């Protein structure tokens, strides 16, 4: 058995405020989390929790992951944008083409996300959170497919996407050119080993797939910090 995607983690200067923003956008429920953080809980078994963990570091540069939110009509897209703005989002320009129909926003701490225009066939049936769009190579898409046991649902022109067999959002990687990595990512995955599994055995399996153990100054903790083949951090939690 493979690890499951337990959470997507945001480093946040104000975890409670950021959790309330995303709870409002996604109509989700929050709960206290470990490490003085707060979590937005998944609404069904196709999703993953979103954790907001405290940090003093300020955001610098674009994130390498962002949400693509779907819409069912132009009115629905405008309503999602308006709701997001009312909760504290703002419009941003990241060089998107004017002819593109999606709207690019940033949350209260500057984390980018997109509200996709209606009729997007790639995200059909994925739900409101259509995708977690990532900067990454084809090889890293293959790595995460094997790491999570999620099948590839797109593999073309060095762009890849995977999706849980249970459904839910896709995770996509856009291929080259990749953004230069200048520091620790603001968003990262938390993986949970199989129930009653062996954390070290899972770490060894991930290393065999191309991951590496890394030290980001975490000290003595019960999780293992690793990096995928593109150097993006993730954590392997203790079995629960």
Rg computed from alpha carbons, rounded to a whole number of angstroms: 17 Å
Number of helices: 4
Mean pLDDT: 93
CATH superfamily of the largest domain: 2,3-Dihydroxybiphenyl 1,2-Dioxygenase, domain 1
Global geometry: globular
Structural class: alpha+beta
Strand numbers in spatial order across the main sheet: 2-3-4-1-13-16-15-14
Distance between the termini: 15 Å
Helix content: 10-25%
Largest sheet: 8 strands, mixed
Helices and strands, in order, run as EHEEEEHEEEEHEEEEHEEE
What would you say the CATH architecture of the largest domain is? Roll
User: What count of structural domains?
Assistant: 2
CATH-defined topology of the largest domain: 2,3-Dihydroxybiphenyl 1,2-Dioxygenase, domain 1
Low-confidence stretches: none
Percent of sequence in beta strands = 25-35%
DSSP strand count: 16
Pfam families: Glyoxalase_6
Protein name: VOC family protein
InterPro entries: Glyas_Bleomycin-R_OHBP_Dase, Glyoxalase_6, VOC_core
Domain VOC: 125-239
Task: Note down, in words, how this protein is organized.
This protein has 4 helices and 16 strands. It has helices at residues 15-26, 74-87, 138-148, 199-209, and strands spanning 4-12, 29-32, 38-41, 49-54, 65-69, 90-91, 103-106, 112-115, 129-134, 152-156, 159-163, 170-173, 187-192, 212-213, 224-227, 233-236. It is of the alpha+beta class. It comes from Streptomyces enissocaesilis.
């Amino acid at each position: 058995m493979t690890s499951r995607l337990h959470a997507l983690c945001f480093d946040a200067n104000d975890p409670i405020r950021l959790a309330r923003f995303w709870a409002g956008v996604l109509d989700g429920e929050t709960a206290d989390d470990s490490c003085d953080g707060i979590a937005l809980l998944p609404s069904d078994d196709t999703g993953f929790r979103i954790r907001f963990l405290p940090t003093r570091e300020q955001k610098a540069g674009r994130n390498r992951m962002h949400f693509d939110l779907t819409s069912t009509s132009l009115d629905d897209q405008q309503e999602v944008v308006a709701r997001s703005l009312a909760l504290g989002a703002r419009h941003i320009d990241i060089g998107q083409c004017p002819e593109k129909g999606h709207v690019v926003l940033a949350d209260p701490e500057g984390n980018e996300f997109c509200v996709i225009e209606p009729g997007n066939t790639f995200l059909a049936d994925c739900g409101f959170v259509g995708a977690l769009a990532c900067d990454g190579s084809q090889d890293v898409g293959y790595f995460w497919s094997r790491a999570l046991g999620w099948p590839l649902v797109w593999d073309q022109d060095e762009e890849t996407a995977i999706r849980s067999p249970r459904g839910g959002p896709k995770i996509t990687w856009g291929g080259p050119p990749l953004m230069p990595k200048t520091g620790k990512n603001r968003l990262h995955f938390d993986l949970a080993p199989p129930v009653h599994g062996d954390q070290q055995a899972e770490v060894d399996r991930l290393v065999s797939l191309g991951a590496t153990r890394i030290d980001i100054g975490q000290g003595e903790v019960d999780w293992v910090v690793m990096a995928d083949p593109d150097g993006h951090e993730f954590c392997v939690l203790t079995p629960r």
